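Hey, can you fold this?
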Amino acid sequence: IGIDMSLNDAEVLAYADPPFIIVENLFCCFFFFEIVVRFVAFTRASMAFGDRWFVFDLALVVLMVAETWIMFLVVRISTDPSQSQEQAFDSSVLRLLKLVRITRVARIARLLRQVPEVMILLKGIGVASRSVFFTCLILLCVVYIFAIALTQLSEDTKLGQTYFPTLADGMFSLLFHGCFFQGLPDFAKLCFQENFMYGFSLLVFVVLAPLTVMNMIVGVLVEVVGIVAAAEQEASTRKSLLESLHKALEKLDLQMTATITKVEFCKIVNRPDIVTVFMEAGIDIVALLRDPDIVFAGDSDMNLDEFLEELITLRGANVATVKDLGQLKTQILREMKQRRGLR
């Protein structure tokens, strides 16, 4: 994309040099073949259009096919080859075609989603957008209040003429000089030279706006990204466990259904590969082997989703919750009943 933007001056592929035409067609063939293979891989068409990433990639491929093949043929048929693209198309049409070319940048999303760390950051920013918006609103209110005060106080002074001639200019000065520290020393020096109160007001603003409110934004982002990363880790662990269980059941000639029995579970945990997966996930496999009822709670089978949730809660790094205490109480009562029955 970068090479094409730098070296290809043609807004329409039909007017580009042959190397660019060949490369664009190769890319178009590759992505078209890929999207067809992915579509065929779905058992039902509704499942394909329910996959957001597939729909996104399909939209990119449709735009690419329209630009590379359909538009190429239309231009070749409807225009005179001897004309330049400026003569063949109106300037507004060329601007529209340029916007279509810019949509190629969206292909970068295909690469970003292959890097989990980047996706976690993007999801964190998306989740934190509401909190960041209100924090920025607080910052804007602080800038507005101090801009009003300093604009009125510095009227008919060099400070007012330079930085606060109007309210809008005052907000601009406080935002870029006070919050982003662009030329802040000169700004602060002039404030203190004019009047100590001006300098003190600027000092209070710097403490409130960039040092407090803007750092709140950083804190919000860090907190939310941490939460999103933990949630993504949980989802990854759950997916890994589900895939491992599926493979183990296939090797044991058992079917993957919506429930799992205690017998199937005992067969699964005796496999070394499953034990390795459980240990990598931090699950206490020793406790599971000693007493499978920790998971099944005395039942012969349980729902697969509930089973995975129970496995995830058995990780050693988890913090004890009220739910864990309730399960412990239930298990103790069950053990007491069993012992009384034996007597």
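Oh, and this one too while you're at it.
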Amino acid sequence: MENDCQTEYQTYLHKVAPKDYLSEYVTPVIDCILENLNETRKSNMAAAAVLLGLLPTTLGLVGSTTVEVGLVALRRPFLAFLLAAGAPAVSPIRTFDYIDTKELLERKPQTVRIKPMGLLKGFGVSIFQYVMAAAAVVNVAFVSYEICIQTICSFAPETAYLPALWAFLAVAVHFFGTWSVHCRTRIRTKPGAKKPPGLWETICAEFTPSASRQGADLEIKEETYLYIFLSWFTATGTVLHIVYGTLVFSSLIFISTSDATAVVARYLSSTLVCRAIVMYELSGLREVLSDQGKASHGGPELIPMEPGPGTMSFGDRLSAPWKRPASSRTEEWQLLSGAERPGEA
């Protein structure tokens, strides 16, 4: 550019700009640079655009859903905020398909169980979660900033913040998803459990992993129109977020394939870290979820999250073999006689 595009570059730097300054003076500089690039570098940038264009969809496949982050936010909202900001993509959900939180928190048989931990160990695990989630947010912020200042979006060269806008729009999508979860799901401490009063209870819950929590009940409320609207709005927002990210990243120019690979790796690492923290929290909830009770008609459904005396856990009931009650010889003879009559006729 120092030898071939000085005229366009000086015009870009020194001309008095009208309202459409960037669209008038940036585009000639971009065209001049592209004209003086060889075909090998152009194909390199094209391959990088393909790789970056697949980034939002790829992150959506490995990221968490809004329902999963919303369940974490019921007791640990600040951690959920960091997880939403550290994972720039949201796993898509079909519109009008609602994830049942009760089924999501069912502990599957023969799965790895999280051992109970004490207060000090739980606090250490919580601090480690916050450090890793904050590191994921910082990583996303830095890589988004570098993309904004070192690349140009071909359809909007005058706007530099589009990649960063996509990265942190996921927080807004998760906000509405958390709101929809809050409309139908509650996690309440059991009446007999000891809990600190007021604000201190919220602070203690924020720094307590789900695996080391006290006994609580998961309350499932009936669907409301607000819940249906928020669920639909969130599902639509996840799709639009992926479409917007694909449009922005596939339009980036002046980035090589090696640099694009590093960008994908950094975004993917943050997403995987946040995904691991979300799954650990949900596994802790599944571990303390031990029984499933149904309330009367028209009322909320309570799922005790601590086994009661003389009861079988929900996971044990799933893994228990199915047994058919023994029938008498008279009943067996009646069944055989009924099966033979159509053949005789």
